[in-house]
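Ticket 4471: requesting a sanity check on a complex prediction with adenosine monophosphate. Repro inputs:
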Amino acid sequence: MYQGNIILLGAPGSGKGTLSKELTKRYEYVVICTGDILRNEKRSGSDIGNQIKDIIGRGNLVTDELINKIVQKVLYKNNQRFILDGFPRTIPQAKFLDEVDEVDLVIYLDISDETLTNRILERGKTSGREDDQSVDIINKRIKQFKEETLPLVDFYEKKSILVTIDAEQTVDEVFNDINNIIKLWN
Ligand code: AMP
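Returned structure tokens:
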């Protein structure tokens, strides 16, 4: 059984948040969700929060420098194994992570644009997130995922630590696939 850290890689709306929560019910993991960390900063009205609120609201990425610093701080405080949800999102972030911690399993949630848009709009009805409510912003986030984050699939494939899962399936089915990977991966 796999005992190490995990990256859940996938476009916005691919199910990373839901699945990482499910995984913590069965395994001893802490979830490090950079989107939640940034939204909390925004809500708290901190200096960082004020700097980033427009960036997040418009669906743009915050700088690598800022997010790397935040993640490093969280990792420094944490001594449990972790699931990363929403990080890394760019090649520089992935290279930075390589320097600060070890991850030997990356689960890529593969899903169509159409399903993503529908899921995010549905989530937007209750999430209160402005970036979940406009089709333009959702399209921008999907485009940005393809340009900035999708190259990570190749990056991790070359390290032979990437597994792709069909995320069009139901949550239960995807969760079942992930469980099987965790059981077999070493
Ligand atoms: P998420 O909840 O993962 O969709 O993230 C919400 C927003 O937070 C994103 O649209 C970005 O503005 C910002 N964000 C989260 N993670 C990162 C990251 N790793 N790099 C840059 N921006 C991020």
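Notes from triage: The CA atoms of residues 13 and 118 lie 9 Å apart. Leaving this open until the requester confirms.
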